[in-house]
Amino acid sequence: MGTLYEQDVMAWASEQAALLRAGKLAAIDIEHIAQEIEDVGKSEKRELASRMAVLLAHLLKWQYQPGRRGNSWSRTIKEQRKALAAALRQTPSLNATLTDPDWLAGTWADAVTKAIDETGLDTFPEDCPWAMAQVLMQEFLPEG
């Protein structure tokens, strides 16, 4: 049937928390606890990438479809920047992710895919044309 971790991760987590609080360290599931802690970091990075891809896609749309600019796009850009700033404030170690070339390449590819799907255009740059500082700057909007 498997371990409690495999059967019901929430029940397992409650059990592990109780064991830790009771100081019963010999009884804890060290391997799965370590895995779950690592997964928290991965989840934070996925959230950062998701928000960044939405922001970058909207910046692309803003630049490449100036005639379609509107409050909705502007609002989305502001909301994503606000959420990204909050995430970076709450988890400062995520700032290093913004300079990881592999992370940026994957996030950029996701943004371009979103922009292509939403615009029907396929003329977007292969690499992000903006510095991360620009992308995150509240006043920055690319010109088309």
Helix content: 55-70%
Report the principal-axis shape: elongated
Find the count of extended strands (DSSP E, 2+ residues). 0
Sequence of secondary-structure elements: HHHHHH
Q: Helix tally?
A: 6
Q: End-to-end distance, in Å?
A: 59 Å
Q: Please state the average pLDDT score.
A: 96
Largest sheet: none
Task: Catalogue the unreliable spans.
Answer: none
Percent range for β-strand residues:
under 5%
CA radius of gyration is 20 Å
Query: Which class of secondary structure composition applies to the elements?
Result: mainly alpha
In short:
The protein has 144 residues and is mainly α.
Distinctive features:
144 residues; mainly alpha; 67% helix; elongated
Helix-strand layout with pairing:
Layout: H1 4-7, H2 9-21, H3 30-64, H4 71-90, H5 101-119, H6 132-136
Helix pairs in contact: 3-4, 3-5
Task: Describe what this molecule looks like in 3D.
There is one protein chain. The protein has a domain at 42-136. The longest helix is centred in the first third of the chain and has 35 residues, at 30-64. The protein has 144 residues and is mainly α. The chain starts with a helix and ends in an 8-residue tail after the last helix. The mean pLDDT is 96. The radius of gyration is 20 Å and the shape is elongated. It is 67% helix and 0% strand. Helix 3 packs across helix 5 (101-119).
